[in-house]
Specification:
Elements: H1 10-13, H2 20-26, H3 32-38, E1 45-49, H4 55-61, E2 66-71, H5 74-82, E3 86-89, E4 102-108, H6 116-126, E5 127-136, H7 146-157
Parallel strand pairs: 1-2, 1-4, 2-3, 4-5
């Protein structure tokens, strides 16, 4: 599936919930420098789209930001709630914002699961004037032969993502 169409694969998007605790344990924390930049204008209210287990939301909350998470998977949301994150369960595109506005909207490692047209329109509606929207992803680089070993496993078990 093309990366631009991943949002159409809702079964895959919600598959992470089956390993929510492991996902929480192994997903990296957002870098301090990124959080410093996001908090530079001292936002008062944040929205974490596709919050998963709450890694980004709880890091921002630790800096004093009131953060609401929106997550499509109840199992991921339960883990986030266990860390003290307020989460509403719904696809972001159809989530009821109830007229709320946010100074900071974040989406770490999840925007590819959001319909680009509907998601962007929703973000524009809920972003307060002068607010900031930040999409970001983790990335890694593997040395050979590790990269070749992973490519072989993906080719055998998940050829559609190679």
């Amino acid at each position: 599936m093309e990366p631009d169409a991943l949002h159409l694969d809702r079964a895959r998007a919600t598959s992470f919930g089956s390993v929510a605790e492991q996902h929480d344990r192994h997903r990296p924390q957002p870098p301090d420098e990124l959080i410093d930049d996001l908090m530079a204008d001292r936002p008062a209210r944040g929205l974490d789209v596709g919050c998963g287990t709450g890694k980004v939301a709880r890091t921002l909350a630790g800096r004093g930001l009131a953060v609401l998470g929106v997550e499509v998977d109840e199992r991921m949301a339960d883990v986030a709630r266990g860390h003290g994150v307020e989460v509403e369960v719904a696809p972001f595109e159809t989530w009821d914002d109830a007229g709320r506005r946010f100074d900071l909207i974040t989406c770490g490692d999840a925007w590819h699961w959001i319909d680009p047209e509907a998601g962007t329109a929703k973000a524009a509606r809920v972003l307060a004037p002068g607010g900031l929207m930040a999409w970001f992803w983790n990335s890694s680089h593997m040395e050979e032969p590790m990269a070749a070993a992973f490519a072989e496993v993906y080719a055998q078990h998940a050829p559609e993502i190679v």
